[in-house]
Write a structure and sequence with these properties.
The complex is a heterodimer.
Chain A (H helix, E strand, L loop, with lengths): L1 E4 L3 H10 L3 E8 L2 E6 L24 E10 L2 E5 L8 E6 L1 H13 L7 H9 E6 L25 E6 L4 E6 L2 H9 L5 E2 L16 H10 L4 H9 L5 H5 L6 E7 L3 E8 L20 H20 L9 H5 L6 H16 L1
Parallel strand pairs in A: 2-6, 6-7, 7-8
Antiparallel strand pairs in A: 1-9, 1-10, 2-3, 4-5, 4-12, 8-9, 11-12
Helix pairs in contact in A: 5-8, 5-10, 6-8
Chain B lengths: L2 H14 L5 E8 L2 E7 L25 H4 L4 E5 L1 H12 L7 E5 L4 E6 H11 L7 H11 L3 H12 L7 H5 L24 H15 L8 H5 L6 H16 L27
Parallel strand pairs in B: 1-3, 3-4
Antiparallel strand pairs in B: 1-2, 4-5
The chains are: A alpha+beta, B alpha/beta.
């Protein structure tokens, strides 16, 4: 069994950085703990659930996907190589690791996305079994668990009353990482601490079924009133993956950008002719729930939500998709009686 | 009667008499506080008020979904009342019905003039928190290079989700400059160039208008300390023009007016 003292996460980061990994880890930044590129001297805080998901290290907020030069009528494509550094993500939450598996399906659906696949291949996800959860966590309602291993290449587990970590490899990438970290790992025994207890808040199958029958429901109107129409929830979500394509540049050279975008913003579906097929926030909230709990299931056989709870923690109006799902579940049960 | 009970009683009366078709207030969601939208006098029991109620509900008065419901009444601590006064000063609303609350008192149902009078009488000396003043003093003491480094690091976090804009009652442009593309003034990429342009233009557009309610910073999912920018500009406006927005519905907004004796020392 490979053991690491609980205060030695920075040592693990340092040895991996020395081995050529870009290391991403939860670090404190003001009032938040954020997943960020680790630099020597930075403390690692694996306690709170990070404010941001791991998504941005595999699917950046903005990315140059093409370059070209222009000279009068002549157009010349320029190289736009994919940036895919060898990366180790330490203490990624099981909900985030599972989300990357959902994104694999999207980015290899009708089109194989080279940039996503290159970064995914270059990234080793070291999951952390959650020792604590808060009142917004709901992984167990959407098929996950605080000690789930889906998507993880290695697992860190608190042991001996949070005084140690047990580090276990789950595949080739994980084994390579453990080999690179051999210098800071000890062989020994430790008793794993119990994972966090996360109550099941709703039946996701019931939500999927309800969504199939309730495109028109007063629920959407009520949600639309409180929603401010920002992109906070989607950009914090590890599974939301919509993007916009924009060209920017000068008369002589330009780039094509892929920027995060979200169905929560009015402009997302705004047509240049003036029509907007999702004219109000009610229609946009409906799309958010429908996509995560119905359309994604129909297309890929799984949910587009892994229960991390970030959307609710960060919502300026404290809206929570888990509460919406619970209300749907309860209404469905009441109707069945 | 507690403040929450008094709010419920007044909300039920406003709805029953038809003076409001919708009351916007606060409700509990677990340990958190969320906005409540009540249209039925029988539904007022969800309304509560305590010191956890921080969201600036004035923001909802610019939503078409809310406006279309007819007359609206809002549970309004001083920060919300000040936002409404600025909106009136900028011709964005002509009247308002508020259920006015203070930190230690409930002031009952007031119209816009009543809210403005109450603000001047009881809440004229609202000051930024000592922590915020201290953080700004620390920033002011930095060299320009250090300050540039500070904001470079902070703005690098911006994802351009525009939650700051969405949460602000005073960001009401039908189409924000950041989304104009003929010509495109501001890069759409959530990267240094565009992020600086966006953050600076957001702050500048608030100069002399911002009431320091803190909604933008509270909404920022990336933890960017936007109040440092807002307070710096607010102090500058107070120093240059002696104006404190959100107390006089008839005041001319500093950003949209001028006086012959304005200091022109900056023209060189």
């Amino acid at each position: 069994m490979k053991i690491l003292d609980a205060d030695k996460l920075p040592d693990l980061a340092a040895v991996l950085a020395a081995a050529g990994y870009r290391v991403v880890a939860p670090v404190r930044d003001g009032a938040q703990v954020r997943m960020a590129e680790w630099k020597p001297g930075l403390a690692i805080d694996a306690g709170p659930i990070p404010a941001n998901s791991v998504k941005e290290f595999l699917f950046p907020r903005c990315e140059v996907i093409a370059r070209y030069s222009l000279d009068g009528d002549s157009f010349a494509p320029q190289p736009a190589p994919v940036d895919a550094p060898k990366t180790a993500v330490l203490a990624v939450r099981p909900c985030d690791a599972a989300a990357m598996v959902a994104l694999d399906k999207v980015f290899n659906w009708e089109y194989r996305d080279d940039a996503w696949n290159a970064r995914r291949e270059a990234t080793t996800l070291v999951a952390l079994v959650c020792a604590a959860a808060d009142d917004e966590c709901f992984c167990t309602s959407v098929g996950g668990a605080p000690d789930a291993r889906l998507g993880a290449d290695a697992v860190l587990r608190c042991a001996d009353g949070a005084s140690k970590f047990i580090l276990e490899a789950l595949g080739e990438k994980g084994q390579a990482l453990l080999a690179a970290a051999a210098g800071v790992l000890a062989d020994g025994d430790a008793r794993p601490d119990p994972p966090a207890s996360v109550p099941v808040r709703f039946d996701s199958k019931a939500v999927t079924d309800w969504c199939g029958e309730n495109f028109e429901s007063p629920l959407w109107r009520d949600l639309g009133l409180a929603c401010l129409g920002c992109g906070s929830c989607a950009y914090a979500c590890p599974v939301c993956h919509c993007f916009d394509i924009q060209d920017e540049g000068t008369r002589s050279e330009a780039v094509r950008l892929r920027n995060w975008d979200t169905c929560g913003l009015a402009l997302f579906t705004q047509h240049s002719g003036g029509h907007n097929p999702r004219p109000d926030q009610a229609a946009r909230w409906r799309q958010r729930v429908m996509h995560k709990f119905r359309y994604f299931v129909e297309r890929f056989g799984g949910l587009a939500c892994t229960g991390c709870g970030r959307c609710a923690r960060l919502c300026p109006a404290r809206l929570a998709i888990s509460q919406v799902c619970r209300e749907i579940d309860e209404a469905r049960k009441a109707a069945a009686k | 009667m507690s403040t929450s009970e008094a709010i419920r009683a007044d909300a039920a009366r406003l709805l029953a008499e038809g003076r409001a078709k919708l009351v916007i207030g606060y409700r509990a969601r677990g340990p958190h506080r969320a906005p409540a939208f009540v249209s039925d006098p029988a539904g007022v029991d969800v309304l509560i008020y305590d010191n956890l109620c921080k969201q600036n509900l004035a923001v909802y008065l610019r939503k078409p979904e809310v406006r279309s419901r007819g007359p609206v009444a809002v549970v309004a601590p001083p920060a919300v009342m000040r936002s409404l006064v600025v909106l009136a000063a900028e011709s964005q609303l002509t009247e308002a019905t508020v259920l006015a609350v203070g930190p230690d008192a409930y002031h009952g149902v007031l119209d816009l003039a009543g809210a403005a009078a109450l603000l001047k009488e009881k809440y004229a000396d609202l000051a930024p928190s000592p922590e915020l003043l201290e953080a700004l003093a620390k920033l002011d003491a930095m060299s320009p290079q250090e300050r540039a480094r500070f904001w470079t690091d902070q703005f690098a976090k911006c994802t351009r989700c525009y939650a700051c804009r969405a949460a602000c009652p005073l960001c009401y442009c039908a189409r924000c400059i950041v989304e104009k593309n003929v010509p495109q003034w501001i890069s759409t990429a959530a990267a240094q160039h565009g992020n600086f342009a966006w953050q600076i233009i957001r702050a500048f557009h608030q100069a002399g208008r911002c009431t320091l309610c803190g909604a933008c910073e509270a909404a920022c999912p990336q933890g960017i300390p936007l109040m440092l920018l807002n307070l710096a500009l607010s102090e500058e406006v107070a120093k240059q023009f002696g104006e404190k927005p959100g107390y006089d519905p008839a005041a001319k907004p500093v950003i949209g007016s001028w006086k012959p004796d304005d200091d022109q020392g900056f023209v060189r």
